[in-house]
């Protein structure tokens, strides 16, 4: 998320309906929708996932491309020594892990003489734990990482194996499927380290709303062209039905400025999707600004205050312990929210909510259709081989199977057919009766394989499909003026640490709109003063210096 930054519906907070793109699978779609950024799971209304996930993404993310799958099935497998591979992923261990892995390993043993085990590390400690494991030389073979995580640090610390001479040889279907141009775009110092995972190019923001309520009160998708339109809808529904609320916070909410403040602009955060890091570009111009001092941020805080003061957001939910996933599939009182474009989950969400409130239905409308967002046309997510891996060839053979062999891919992503999922044609799936993503095995596609090879929920709506087509079409995006640039934080590490702590301390309260106006004004003044003291100006200057040097080359 998209590498993606959500907005809220009426709350600058976190509308439960739109927890699209969260890293934890959102409770209803085994495909997962967080192609990029954990903050996309920080609040349902501000779903931040904006990760530039790849220039090579297919215009139809569900074509079910299988490469040489048929050839893979008929060719005689090369007999190798049996090995065990260890993969590390962020998130929680999925349901039915042991049974699914046993079945998967039987197939992997037959095809590449390998077995796989996966260690799952909670999201909140994943970045740190990966660096610790790499520094200690811990014995594991490969792991997920992304620019929005700590991939730059991993590369700078020699935490990724150079697979330049191995990739095409040991994973030919995957290599050829990515195309040489895409691979070249994602090299580091001319070498191939992480294997890029194509997905959305960026995440334009949408308003995800209760379509059944819109119908009831005389609104259509065409009614929603601005934040003011959304506010008018919310107020009308709430006036007529006291059980409804414009938006709600949840236990993962940390703020949502990035999805609202710069809506409709060409915006680029540096580093991409680090929203606690001051320093961004606007209008695709190489001028670094401190977004927290911008007029757009100040206007956003006023909007958030309005929502709080007028009761358009559930004030009691500011300290809620609920999750994005839970709220997205159980909250029938929230009217809507602004967040990342849907990736196939609208139908699933409607199905889940309609079981609680008959007729409940969600739809989404693009709020930035006329804006060509900036994209680096690079991947945001990577599969990385650890320097400690003793079997890099077998890791690559496994990844090649995930790409080229539909049976292996389906089992790795969705579990055992009939027990965890039911295949619907070549490119869709549904859950067995009485089951959903919380009760079945699933892994996230965006950590391991191109979007075009995944299955889409059989419940996916036409809006889902058109959204996927839009966010994977390069024609809908503008190439960043600093495409290829990666910020090196070494010169301002101390300042970044101090500034990030300040931002994390103030964002939630400021961006919720809570308290009196005097309290908000005081907090905002304190915020800016502490940023200055922590060294924010040095960070901005260093980012500008590096960008200027990059553009001179």
Automatic annotation (TrEMBL):
The record places domain DUF3502 at 482-552
Name of a matching Pfam family? DUF3502
Q: Recite the lineage of the species.
A: Bacteria, Bacillati, Bacillota, Bacilli, Bacillales
Q: What is this protein called?
A: DUF3502 domain-containing protein
Query: Keyword Signal on this protein?
Result: yes
Q: Which UniProt keywords apply?
A: Signal
Biased amino acid composition, Low complexity: 23-75
Signal peptide residues are: 1-19
> Where in this protein does the record put region Disordered?
23-76
């Amino acid at each position: 998320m998209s590498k993606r930054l959500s907005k809220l519906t009426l709350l600058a907070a976190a509308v439960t309906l739109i927890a699209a793109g969260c890293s934890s699978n959102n409770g209803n779609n085994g495909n997962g929708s967080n192609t990029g950024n954990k903050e996309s799971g920080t609040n349902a209304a501000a779903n931040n996932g904006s990760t530039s996930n790849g220039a090579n993404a297919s215009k139809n993310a569900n074509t079910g491309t299988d490469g040489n799958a048929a050839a893979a099935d008929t060719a005689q497998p090369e007999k190798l020594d049996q090995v065990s591979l260890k993969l590390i992923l962020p998130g929680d261990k999925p349901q039915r892990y042991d049974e699914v892995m046993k079945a998967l390993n039987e197939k992997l043993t037959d095809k590449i003489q390998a077995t796989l085990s996966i260690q799952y590390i909670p999201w909140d400690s994943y970045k740190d734990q990966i660096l610790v494991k790499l520094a200690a030389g811990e014995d594991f073979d490969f792991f997920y990482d992304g620019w929005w995580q700590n991939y730059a640090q991993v590369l700078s610390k020699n935490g990724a194996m150079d697979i330049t001479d191995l990739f095409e040889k040991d994973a030919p279907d995957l290599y050829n499927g990515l195309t040489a141009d895409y691979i070249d775009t994602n090299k580091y110092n001319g070498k191939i380290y992480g294997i890029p995972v194509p997905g959305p190019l960026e995440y334009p923001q949408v308003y995800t709303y209760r379509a059944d309520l819109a119908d009831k009160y005389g609104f259509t998708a065409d009614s929603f062209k601005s934040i003011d339109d959304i506010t008018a809808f919310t107020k009308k529904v709430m006036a007529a039905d006291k059980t409804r609320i414009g938006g709600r916070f949840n236990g993962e909410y940390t703020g949502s400025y990035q999805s609202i403040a710069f809506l409709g602009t060409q915006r680029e955060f540096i580093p991409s999707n680090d929203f606690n890091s001051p320093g961004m570009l606007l209008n695709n111009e190489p001028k670094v600004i401190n977004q927290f001092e911008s007029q757009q941020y100040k206007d956003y805080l006023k909007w958030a205050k309005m929502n709080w003061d007028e009761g358009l957001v559930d004030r009691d939910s500011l300290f809620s312990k609920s999750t994005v996933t839970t709220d997205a599939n159980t909250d029938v009182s929230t009217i809507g929210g602004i967040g990342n474009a849907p990736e196939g989950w609208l139908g699933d969400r409607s199905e889940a909510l309609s079981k609680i409130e008959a007729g409940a239905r969600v739809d989404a409308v693009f709020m930035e259709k006329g804006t060509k967002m900036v994209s680096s046309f690079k991947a945001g997510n990577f599969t990385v081989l650890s320097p400690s891996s003793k079997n890099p060839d077998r890791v690559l053979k496994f990844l090649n199977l995930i790409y080229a062999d539909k049976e292996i891919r389906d089992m790795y992503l969705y579990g055992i057919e009939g027990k965890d999922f039911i295949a619907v044609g070549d490119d869709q799936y549904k859950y067995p009766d009485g089951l959903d993503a919380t009760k079945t095995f699933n892994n996230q596609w965006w950590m391991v394989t191109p979007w075009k090879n995944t299955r889409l929920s059989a419940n996916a709506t036409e809006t889902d499909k058109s959204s996927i087509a839009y966010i994977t079409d390069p024609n809908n995006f503008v190439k960043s003026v600093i495409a290829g640039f990666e910020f090196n934080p070494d010169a301002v590490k101390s300042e970044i640490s101090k500034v990030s702590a300040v931002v994390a301390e103030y964002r939630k309260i400021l961006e919720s709109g809570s308290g009196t106006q005097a309290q908000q004004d005081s907090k905002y003044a304190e915020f800016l003063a502490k940023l200055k003291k922590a060294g924010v100006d040095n960070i901005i200057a260093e980012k500008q210096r590096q960008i200027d040097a990059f553009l001179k080359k």
